[in-house]
Amino acid sequence: MAVVTVDGKDIEIGATERLNCIEVARRAGVEIPHYCWHPGLSVVASCRMCLIETGTRDPATGKVTMMPKLVPGCQTPAKDGTVIVTESALVKESRARVEEALLIDHPIDCPICDKAGECLLQDYHFEHGQAERRADIHAFHSRRRDVGPTVTLFVDRCIMCTRCVRFAREVSGTSELMVINRGAKEEIDVFPGFPLDNKLSGNVVDLCPVGALGDKDFLYQQRVWFLKREANVCGGCATGCSITTEHNQDSVYRLKPRENPHVNKWWMCDDGRYGWHHLHDSSRLLAAEHRSAAGSTRQTIEWPDVVTRLRDDLKGAGSLAVAVSPMLTLEEAWMLCAVARSIDPQAFLAVGHVPTRGADESFPGGFTIRAEKCPNRLGVEAVVSLFDQPLHSWNDLLEHVRAGRTTAAWITAGHPEPWIDAATAATFADLKCLVVQDLFDSPLAQLATWRLPAAGFAERAGTWVNAGHRAQSFEQAIRAPAGVWPEGRLFWNMLGRRGLYDPVAVRQQIAESSATLAALAGEMPATGVDLRLQQLAGA
Amino acid sequence: MPPFTPVLLEAVGIPNGHTLASYRSRGGYAPLEQILREKQPVDVVEMVKASGLRGRGGAGFSTGLKWSFLPKDHPGPIYLCINADESEPGTFNNRILMEDDPHQVIEGIILAAYATRATTAYLYLRYEYPQSWERLQGAIDEAYAAGYLGSAIKGSSFSLNLYLHKGAAAYICGEETGLIESLEGKRAWPRIKPPFPAVEGLFRKPTVVNNIETMACVAQIARRGIDWFRSIGVPADPANPRDPGSYGPKLYCLSGHVERPGCYEAPLGITARQLINEYGGGVWKGRRAKAAIPGGISMGLLTEAELDTPLDFAGPGRVGCLGLGTAAVVVIDETVSIVDFLHNSCRFFAHESCGQCTPCREGTAWSLRMLERIKAGKGRLKDLELLAEIGNTMGMMPGSTICGLADGAAWPIKNAIKKFRGEFEDYIKTTNPTGWMVTDPVPALQIVGAH
């Protein structure tokens, strides 16, 4: 066990842990300010904000020998006997000077800067800066440079930490960004004709500690202090990145990656990042509708009536087949299966349509975008197998219907993109009762006896299991639009449960009913649990 | 003329002194052949260590010690980089060596490569030296043809390929890790250390970076012996165990306001006044010197009274300068305004700062703009405090930057303000009679910088 002293406080770190002084200080509750260092990028030690005093404690005598000069905390490994001083006058003066130097050429246009409120330059200036501007330099103003389809560079706000350049070289591997010019005239730029255009490009905006890189999708949309933040999981693909949904008044404004060492580290892809606009699309299905006979017009039905009439309608139709969408949470899937079996004990249960596009895409930094564009296939498979063996796929369900072995079907979907063509939808044309639960109208929804709106990813609560068998639970970030009951709420009510839909209670029930999903019991860590690992441990 | 007979510069003035034939006629390459036949690499390292040779590039680090930092029994490759990016203002000793006696340099390179077990050497030449390029390339071709370069040199098992690389003219490429980055085809941003180049340098392999003049010294040590080398210069101070002494001849670049500027070879330890008077024919036009730069602009300033400082590795440091540097002495006569001098110095460093570390990038630019304002007649006494603060806090020595460029930028500021403060104050008071005493924050100036 190694002992590091941070501002007089002893911190124990693992003997094999390779930590720098910033990381160790953080464990001691001391924040060493830094700009250029990021745990996911190489160390350049160039901003000089993290300068600290260090020394070593002689293990035999306990005598501390300090280094005569300041060293960067990011570059200095913490070892047994390392002594870190972060609050000395020398360190404070050095921070104030770096802060002053960074502001010399900075336009200080915070009132019109999107970063204001979450800007390290602002925060550090208040915490470590000087009250008076001593520099006699008139900074340039508002030079903007388009660096790519997703990102705008505000040239003079940049503090040259080069995080974005290193990201493009080390994580996305696309190397579009570079530093041009020299000295105080340095700027970030792209080579003419080669814009910052890759599937991870939005991350450079998150990495930017100041307002230099602006996300075109978010630019001037909302002041960040109005945003509320909810830990969420991205529903864009089977990677299931941990994200934070940032929203205000039930409108999503942006998604940000949430650090999760097991899934996405610090990153997320642009498909996911900008993949929330469908939530606020005006063409979404916004009411539960029913039509009594083919060809007749649909009537809007109040949800409490849906709960009772839907059950009766399906019971009356005879045998039931259900597609459990991989967009549903574990809890919703489990309740849907339970509802289906309560209507028809022999109900045919299948995993719904699994959308795929292209092939898996991996990046040098270890990030993978999955071809499977749904967040919970593994979870839904696990739940459906609890009710119906062997496991049926969407194609099995289509065969089942074509063979005329069912008279009613309940298709849950919730896909943000068109997923079914008219020919496939026609398979369901002759059923007595067809329930379709989806975000948007589709050839299938056109045929539906019951056309029910579905919830989007940020409107759900529950648990998803990603391609790596990691189950992540999340809360609902925003309310579904008026007229939409999220699936969980409908199923909860159809099961006759009292009160508000409680995904945690359902999750406990699932965990108790299944050895394979037992790891879901109890409180879920923010970074999720590895179901496979838990099973191996159990076995 | 003084009694010292040039050794490093012996080819100067000899017709076709840069050719292989001339070099061999003066005894060149014979020591190399003998060493390849009779000695092991470690013997060469020991020879150079024993000679007390300190690097001539500016820092004055012991060359033999630097070589011995290479990891033992490394499977290779180990690289040798020769720093000929001679960009320090006032410095041109490498150029003389490369143009007038390139084979002396190449022999030194081969010996250094043998000592360090490097089989590939890169000579990083500054862009502005087309004549050096021609002479070096010619000499390298001759050396290959004569079997001094290439595989199995002179029947030994030692092989060496020497590549001449032309830089793109940036001061920072003379910093050893900046040079390495530049050689790798990257932007010359100095690397953070550790790892030091001896452990992980060019292409992430152990690397030694040496100066051109150091290589010439190695060739002469091999030819004339350790005792000859140690008989010249200033011995180590017995009272200071950390002083390794300053041995050997040194090429002093004398320029500025002297009657006979030029590159002169003299024993280490000659005083600046001796150099100016005995070699340079005194300050020009019968004037007095106001100050002199002891070893390139980044070393700071000597006042007239400090001209008796010996120019060995320890001398300039005793009077508040950064060190001997490249031993480029630039004389400033009494008519020159020290404000102009500092402005020029700041302009250079603001232009050449690589821009990686915040204190240097912003500090050099800020000090330049402050001097521009002072020169525009809007200086205030308070600015001197600010300039001094920038000078005192910017650099590798206080720990605020990665490389020494900022120290080099800081020293002229520090020295000029400390040693010539009266002149600055007079200048500010006369050019800004109504505002020199104001201490309010300065209003921003709408001026554009160096370009």
Summarize this structure as a short list of keywords or feature phrases.
heterodimer; A: 539 residues; alpha+beta; Ubiquitin-like (UB roll); Alpha-Beta Plaits; Rossmann fold; 3 domains; 7-stranded mixed beta sheet; 6-stranded mixed beta sheet; 25% helix; B: 451 residues; alpha/beta; de novo design (two linked rop proteins); 5-stranded mixed beta sheet; 4-stranded parallel beta sheet; 17 helices; 12% strand; globular; disordered C terminus
Give structural notes:
The complex is a heterodimer of chains A (539) and B (451). Chain A has 539 residues and is α+β, with helices and mostly antiparallel strands. Chain A folds into three domains: 2-87, Ubiquitin-like (UB roll); 104-280, 2-Layer Sandwich (Alpha-Beta Plaits), CATH 3.30.70.20; 289-456 and 481-502, 3-Layer(aba) Sandwich (Rossmann fold), CATH 3.40.50.740. Chain A has a seven-stranded mixed β-sheet, sandwiched between helices. In chain A, helix 2 (89-104) packs across helix 3 and helix 8 runs parallel beside helix 13. Chain A starts with a strand and ends with a helix. Chain B is α/β, with parallel strands linked by helices and 451 residues long. Chain B has three domains: 20-231, 3-Layer(aba) Sandwich (Rossmann fold); 246-333, Roll (Ubiquitin-like (UB roll)); 338-431, de novo design (two linked rop proteins), CATH 1.20.1440. Chain B is built from 17 helices and eleven strands. Chain B has helices at residues 20-25, 30-38, 41-51, 63-68, 93-100, 102-116, 130-145, 176-183, 212-224, 226-230, 272-279, 315-318, 338-352, 358-378, 381-393, 405-419, 421-431, and strands at 79-84, 120-125, 161-166, 207-211, 233-234, 246-247, 249-256, 262-267, 289-293, 302-303, 328-333. In chain B, strands 8-7-11-9-10 form a five-stranded mixed β-sheet, covered by helices on one side. In chain B, strands 3-2-1-4 form a four-stranded parallel β-sheet, sandwiched between helices. In chain B, strands 5-6 form a two-stranded antiparallel sheet. The longest helix of chain B is centred in the C-terminal third of the chain and has 21 residues, at 358-378. The two termini of chain B are 44 Å apart. Classes of the chains: A alpha+beta (539), B alpha/beta (451). Chains A and B meet through strand 5 and helix 2 of A and helix 13 and helix 14 of B.
